[in-house]
Amino acid sequence: MIIQAAALGWALLLSQVEGQEMAPQPETQQAGGDSAAGAGQEQPGNGAQAPRPTRSGNDLTGLLTPEEPRPALRYDQPILCTRLPPTRQVPSGEYRMQCDPVTRRCLIAPAHELDSNGEETDRPLLRTSYCERAEASANVRMQEGYRFVPAIAESPPGWYRDEQGRVMQFNFDLHRRIYLGGAWAPLLRSGQGVEQDRMRVDFGIRTEFPGGDEDTRLHRLTFLETELYLGEPSLEVTVMRYDFSVERKVPLFRITTFFGKPRRFDLGLNLGAWVEALHQETIEREGSELSLLTWGAAHGTLDLWHSKDLVSYVRFRAGAGAERDRTHGQNTLVPAVVFEGDLTLDKDGFHHLLFSAEARKVLLDDPVTGRTLHPERLKLRAGYELILLAINDQPVSMVVDGRGAWRSDIPNVPAKWEWSANAGLRASLWAPARRSAPLASSR
Amino acid sequence: MLSLGLTALLLTLSPESQGTVAAPVPPQVDECVMETDDGDRFRVCFDPGNALLLGTGLQVRDGVALPTFQAGILLRTERTSRSKGMLWLNTHRILVTEATPGTARRGLTTTLYEGTFRRHLEEGFILIPTSRPLRVPFPFDVTLAVRAGHLERRVWEGPGLTVETGRAALLLDPVRSASGRLWLGFGPAASHSLRRMPDGTLEHEISPFSSGVLETGYETADGWWTVRASGMAGWINSLDGDRRFRARADTSIERILFALNDQPLWLQLYGSYAYQDVGLALRTEWTAGARLLVRSFSAL
Hints:
The complex is a heterodimer of chains A (443) and B (300). Chain A is mainly beta. Helices cover 10% and strands 49% of the residues of chain A. Chain A has a 12-stranded antiparallel barrel. A 5-stranded mixed sheet of chain A has the order 6-1-2-3-7, with helices on one face. In chain A, strands 4-5 form a two-stranded antiparallel sheet. Chain A starts with a helix and ends in a 13-residue tail after the last strand. The A-B interface holds A 253-258, 262-264, 266 and B 34, 36, 40, 42-44, 224, 256-262, 264. Strand 16 of chain A pairs antiparallel with strand 14 of chain B.
């Protein structure tokens, strides 16, 4: 009985002591108010105005509740930069913190990169979001009983951060890049052997940007697209090319029928445009050379299909260009019909499929010895590009494609099919994350 | 007693019936506009007489099949006269042109202006100005039909052309419709024509109200169906005293097929017959054909 009474007395005494320690102090009360408002509503300058907070302990280790896999701070949620009790791994105590008042959990990530041993370095984290400096909040959270969960700092969409805090790009937009590549490009001409000593060097600058008010549009620009073949030589350079795809909200055609109850059928043709300026093509076959300069070409496009973000498409294109036959000194009109597609097969932009079939006919030309009047050109192409790796966040991709061509415009060279298979590598600069890139934490 | 009764009656009336609050008016429904399931609106009523006309088709003329193209400007107006307060129902057809390309029967027919002006009264009458004026019922609307600059050129007939410089007809309309969509007029017509012969000579012909004209037609209120018929017959005199009889008749029926972006397309079947009145040779011939007609801007 005496023992039981003594035990009860100790318990009451202990509970009284704990209650006194938990009693709110003036600083805590003030901070507690903003805590209830949520992490996202911290008042700027709180830490500067309040006296330096009293730490609950000298070591954070005992307050941590690790989770596996290690969570990551969200880039799109408010983040506080704060100082917590130092640990052996993070002696500076500088952390990025994101608290959830619902689960009463604070994700904390060191504000500097860690080395391979998990110890803090002096390199600050890169590509983080804005954070507010609020040291008082960390102290308040501790006293309010929040759990502190070691986490990985946030990273922007399309970027990934490892457990050492190093950030790296995992999502690439190959439609916005400066690329330089090379490929082995053997050529087979009908009735002749395979020309194996043939190489291709390619270069180009591409970008695209969305626009449009009523309609959703995607504008594409290409500059200095160049393909130079060595071996069986040929060269193609386009100084500038522009086209756009559009998703029209207003149907292009509204058809009303008047048999029975009138009904309306909407036909939304997504018509776009494609223009090219200064396209130079030089080709040499069987000792005969042809040099063509297209001053400009304008085509209309009809998207048979395009992705929601308009990046991928399958379409018809038709129009005409004004061409200068520099070899024979004549100006011609070259109408063309093209069926083409450019498909990005995955959300991170690693896989790309391209294909096209193109027919051109030269009109308004003068007779040239050794070739027919109004010669024609046919081109087929199917290719695949895959990002293999990224060096300093700049992707290196493998490019394979097959091409076929038939043309009757080279004098004294009989029209015949020629086929080439190209395999090579391409290094891309710029290549930012795609506009649709997800957050690493939501992958 | 009467005042008591009136008071009791007023008290039993609801406030609304006393005029303090207007009775609810049913929302006006525009029957010419329909909505899809998605709420997109589209027009289902059209005015065939108010449009920019474009058409193409195929006709058979005396056994020869010919492609045709047609174009013109059609206007229909209604106005109330300021002086008499009566309704005028008017139609105007400007530069209505039909062309038949090709080598076999290349030709062009165009009319600079053609219009009808129908004066409509609720109760027509004739005033006899006796000392006490008499009002005699007159069950007709009066229509003035005019045409100016009707040119007919038939290339295969060689040089020369026919121009009806002007025609005016005074028509009586017993139907007296208050709408411009129904009309029936008949009456005498006067005209002057020029024929420039292949040898360059000019022949003048005059019909001093010695011809009769019939004009009739009906268009449904929504414009989906249209039926028209017209005819002219009578004697025409040359300046040297010769007189000849000639006649023409035309009829057509139209049905709307569909509308593209609220611009309707009609199918027209038509036929015409001319007796000693076509071309420089004053041929007798018949024509039948079908046209697809777009009447742009005709949506109501």
